[in-house]
C-alpha cells in the first residue's frame, strides 16, 4: 500500500531539503515524496514532507504561515547574510551602545507588511536563473523587491556584548516568502550597524510544530514502513483547520466529477469542500474571472 500523508520532519543541519526527500524515498519505499518549501542546509526545524497522494497538497502547505527562532549578530555582515558566508563589512559594537529598548523599537517597526529584497544567495529567479547562480559567478543583477508579512517579531533573550559583537535571539511569525536572513540584516541597519543571522530554526509550518516533528534518526531506527507511518499525519488531519464548506449529496456528486460550482456564499478565496458525512472531497477557489462567487476546483482530494 502506498504511504499517504504529511510527515512533519525535523530537518537536521547539513542537509538540503532535497537530501531529505531522497532519504525518505528510501525509508518509505516510494518515489512520490515532495517537500513544502526549501530550508537552507544549515537551518534546522519543521519541514513538512508530503507522501503519495498528499503531494498534491504541497503548494497549499507552502503558502501557510511559519514561525522561526533565530539569533541576530550585530557587528559584521556576510555575503550570504548568515554565519556561513564571507565577511564583507565590519562595524564593531561598543558595549552597551545598543539598548534593549532600541532593539525592541526596531522590532516593532518591522512588524506588519514590510519590503524585502531577497539575498543574492537565494533561490529567487531573475530572467530564468536563480540568484545564487549569479552570485557564484560574481554577476550582479537587479533583485526584485517584494512585500512580505511579519505577524509577530519579539526579542526572546538578553542582549549580550563580546569582542565587538552584539547578540540576541528573536522569534518570528511570518507569511510565505520571508527571508529571516534579510530581516536580521535590516534590524542591524536600522540600529546603524552591519549584521547577519547567526542561527535559525523553523519552529512551525502551518499547523505543524516542532512538537509534532520527527527526526531522520528516529525514522531510520524503525524496522518497518508501518512503524514509520505512525509519524505521518493523514490528509484529513492536515487540512482540518482550513476554511471549509459542507455541501449536500447532489453537490458532492458534482464535486467528485470535478465540476465548477455556481454562486456559493463563501468568505474565503480558497476552501475545502466536504460532504455531509464529513469527508473532504476537493479544494476549491473563487474563480478570478467571475465576480458573482462561482468557484473552481483546484485539487481533487480523492
TrEMBL record:
GO terms for molecular function: tRNA pseudouridine(55) synthase activity. Keywords: Isomerase, tRNA processing. It is an enzyme of class 5 (isomerase). Residues 181-238 form the tRNA pseudouridylate synthase B C-terminal domain. Gene3D superfamilies: Pseudouridine synthase. InterPro entries: PsdUridine_synth_cat_dom_sf, PsdUridine_synth_N, tRNA_psdUridine_synth_TruB, TruB_C. Its EC number is 5.4.99.25. It catalyses: uridine(55) in tRNA = pseudouridine(55) in tRNA. Pfam families: TruB_C_2, TruB_N. The active site is at 40 (nucleophile). Belongs to the pseudouridine synthase TruB family. Type 1 subfamily. Responsible for synthesis of pseudouridine from uracil-55 in the psi GC loop of transfer RNAs. HAMAP family: TruB_bact (MF_01080). This is tRNA pseudouridine synthase B. It comes from Exiguobacterium antarcticum. The lineage of its organism: Bacteria, Bacillati, Bacillota, Bacilli, Bacillales.
Amino acid at each position: 500500500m502506498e504511504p499517504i500523508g504529511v510527515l512533519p520532519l525535523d530537518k537536521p543541519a547539513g542537509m538540503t531539503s532535497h537530501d531529505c526527500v531522497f532519504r525518505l524515498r528510501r525509508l518509505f519505499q516510494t518515489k512520490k515524496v515532495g517537500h513544502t518549501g526549501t530550508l537552507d542546509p544549515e537551518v534546522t526545524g519543521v519541514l513538512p514532507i508530503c507522501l503519495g497522494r498528499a503531494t498534491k497538497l504541497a503548494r497549499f502547505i507552502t503558502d501557510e504561515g511559519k514561525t522561526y527562532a533565530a539569533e541576530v549578530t550585530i557587528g559584521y555582515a556576510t555575503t550570504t547574510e548568515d554565519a556561513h558566508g564571507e565577511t564583507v563589512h565590519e562595524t564593531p559594537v561598543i558595549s552597551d551602545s545598543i539598548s534593549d529598548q532600541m532593539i525592541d523599537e526596531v522590532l516593532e517597526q518591522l512588524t506588519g507588511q514590510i519590503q524585502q529584497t531577497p539575498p543574492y544567495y537565494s533561490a529567487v529567479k531573475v530572467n530564468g536563473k536563480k540568484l545564487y547562480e549569479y552570485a557564484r559567478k560574481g554577476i550582479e543583477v537587479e533583485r526584485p523587491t517584494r512585500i512580505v508579512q511579519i505577524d509577530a517579531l519579539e526579542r526572546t533573550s538578553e542582549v549580550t556584548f563580546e569582542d565587538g559583537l552584539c547578540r540576541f535571539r528573536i522569534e518570528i511569525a511570518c507569511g510565505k516568502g520571508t527571508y529571516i536572513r534579510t530581516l536580521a540584516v535590516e534590524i542591524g541597519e536600522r540600529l546603524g550597524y552591519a549584521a547577519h543571522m547567526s542561527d535559525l530554526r523553523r519552529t512551525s509550518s502551518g499547523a505543524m510544530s516542532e512538537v509534532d516533528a520527527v527526526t531522520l534518526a528516529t525514522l531510520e531506527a524503525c524496522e518497518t514502513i508501518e512503524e514509520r507511518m505512525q509519524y505521518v499525519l493523514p490528509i484529513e488531519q492536515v487540512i482540518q483547520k482550513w476554511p471549509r464548506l459542507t455541501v449536500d449529496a447532489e453537490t458532492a456528486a458534482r464535486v467528485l466529477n470535478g465540476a465548477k460550482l455556481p454562486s456559493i456564499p463563501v468568505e474565503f478565496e480558497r476552501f475545502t469542500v466536504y460532504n455531509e458525512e464529513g469527508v473532504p472531497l476537493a479544494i476549491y477557489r473563487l474563480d478570478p474571472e467571475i465576480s458573482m462567487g462561482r468557484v473552481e476546483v483546484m485539487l481533487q482530494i480523492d
